[in-house]
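MOLECULE: protein
FOLLOWS: sequence and fold
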Amino acid sequence: MTHISELIAEARHGARHYARCSTEQALVYSCERVASRHVPLRELTKRDVESIVEDICLVEDIDIPFIQFGRRNGRCTAWADRTTHTIGFMRRNPTLDDVIHEIAHLVSRGDGHDDLFRSTLVRLGRRHAGVEWASLMHHLFVGVGLDQSGW
């Protein structure tokens, strides 16, 4: 079993792979990457994505966003646009954590990957991906030094 301190070190080290991002964004992406390796969430078909997004939105009492599939730009695997209430996925089979991440952008109304976004991500993750994934994300965020004032 891997100790949390090793996972935190892995997340800190992995942030360097996101050189075009802000430090905060790089750390968030790196924490998600570590979590996806240690608590993998299932890959989804297009139909699964549509169904799960609808289910999450109904439970969370938010408007169901428009969903797009296919290329938007070459750098991201998924995106959210609050002005059009749209989320999009570039990969053929996005994962549940991709869906939760993009819905968190719509729900949080925070800027980028700030503490409000992160607390929303963990809250949605706990409810829709499970306690193990959400707990790991929370501990990774705290461990890499991301501000937790939104919690």
Summary: The helical segments are 4-14, 23-38, 46-60, 96-108, 115-128, 131-143. The first helix runs from residue 4 to 14. Strands lie at 66-69, 78-81, 86-89. The chain has one domain: 4-143.
